[in-house]
Amino acid sequence: MTRARKHQVCLEETPYYHCICRCVRRAFLCGEDKSTGQNFDHRKQWLVDKITQLAEVFAIDVCAYAIMSNHYHLVLRVNQQEAQQKQKQKGTPLNLIN
Prior knowledge:
Layout: H1 5-8, E1 16-22, H2 42-57, E2 60-67, E3 71-78, H3 80-90
Antiparallel strand pairs: 1-3, 2-3
């Protein structure tokens, strides 16, 4: 059963979160696919660049990451001060968790 984000994330308890993303159907994110012989190592840098870009946009600090052949792990910190500053610049009310 799914739960709303506001019931899963509590910034008062901790701003740190361990996030995992996994490929489906035995697809390869990075590394060599032994069944097809294709090498997907070029995707690692693309993924690091994209994570860095999104972290800046969403006021998230990337504390650690690990990229494996079919999944990756991120340890993220919600940067509340940065989020508040960005909201003040935009002139909109702050709502960290919808």
